[in-house]
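Follow-up to my post from last week.
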Amino acid sequence: MSQPLLETRDLQIQFGGVVAASGVNLDVIEGETLAIIGPNGAGKTTFLNLCTGYIKPSAGRVTFRGADITARSPRAITRLGIARAFQIPQLFAEHTVLENLLLAAAVRDRVWNPFRRLATLPARGEMLALLDLVGAGDLADQPVEVLPEGRRKLVDIAIALALKPRLLLLDEPTSGVASAEKFQIMDILANALARERVTAVFVEHDMEVVRRYASRVAVWNTGKITHSGPPDEVLSDPDVRRDVIGL
Amino acid sequence: MAGRLNAQALLAVAAVVLIAAAPLMAQWVKVLLTIALAKGLAVLGIMILLRAGQVSFGHAMFYAASAYAGAFVGRWTGGGELFVLIGAGLAVSLALGLAIGVFVVRYRYIFFAMLNLAFSMVLFSILEKFFHVTGGSDGMRIARPTVLGMELERAPFEYVMFYLTLGLVVGLAWGVRRYLASPLGQALAAVKSNETRLEYLGMSARHALLVGYVLSAGLAGLGGVLASITQGLATPEIAYWVRSGEFVFIAILGGAGTVAGAFAGAVVYEGVRSYAAAYFADIWQMVLGAVLLAIILFAPGGLVGLAERLTGRRLRGGSADPAVAADQARVGER
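User reply:
Got it. Predicted complex:
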């Protein structure tokens, strides 16, 4: 097996008396789609925050493609190739959908010429194609403010994909979305990940989504990874069914 | 869209031609207009920060620092050369903008506004208290500099200042428009709406704001040195917070966040101010206050918003007219 894309070693963090991570060792392998499941408040989102430098662990190390990124800023980590989509979509409210993506492309390509119009960047065609890929081609000129939640989630994911990341971290891609729309979003996501050859880690509550779309599942409970393996195997484990799924 | 853009461009060209021709019809307006346009440059600086959702109540410091830089260079070089004075003022305001900007771009909203105010009041105190260097509250006289080596009489010099300022305004208004349409300029609105996402694109919100801040300081500085050379005087009063407030006032009057608004606001402001001062000497501030109140209540988009509403209606009316007429004709047929 090749070197993992992302490695965490003995990650520790606590907030007051709550231990979110106590010795987390998790490897993300290139090409996989890893789902992280666990009870509410277990620290799954904290894990994404730790990996992207939003918060620093009190101990432990995060390595991305062999480089230690533990103390780096979200900005620096993003530039190294880790993009993030949020549970609550983080969009630029004053811009259209296409402009949101173009800003991402401009930062990615470092277009800082003050006389170069955002609207006519060379990446425009690429961004329109990306919008088509996520099924939002018709929304290009819509202000993001008016979009329903499901579409906002897709745009948030598209912004992350626009950065051409090696690794995409998604926080509950289907939360806040009507159940009928859930699989549509995940189909689009899976298709995009395959097309762009992006490795992905997603935090998820919906076990059906996990079963269908993850290539591996890691269970996060009481600050540790308690199980890790193929979805069918992990999701049928009695401990997991009792502690996480609540069956 | 294209029709609207053309209408805007046409309006801008008409305004520039009108302003350029004004002193030929009434000589006395050229100094008034020079000062108004120079202030407009400072207001343009405020506009840039407004794009990022930030207000500075201290930009008079760049206006004043630049004016005094011009005054000192003039003193040291025995009158000096116009373009050297302007260059010195611009350089000092950009450098000061960078030095203060590095600090203040860490803050937002009320903290950003008040820190700028605090810095400007420090400068005001220095200018007023170090009177043996700065002339105290009397300020510094700026002798009429040579223009490319030529010594000019007062009237031709005022024409030079007027057309030079107008030229700079046109060039810089175009440049700032381009900047605001570029990714760097658009990032300002992103600072306003979502800094977290900006960081997660790999871009520093502080850097984006710092670029805007230094640019805005340079514009304020350029305005300050042009106005002071025109008036032949730099006084601490131009660093006072009331002057900073005036720039923000004009920005809102003109239409917060638009390039044209900065200059439309400045010209209208100076006009109203000089008329109000002439006809209502004791209550001219009240007249200005009433004008601003009226704008905020009835035209929140400022003068530009008002103009857009008018031209937009006219445009829509004009282009829709035949279609509407045809529709009505068809309805009539049925």
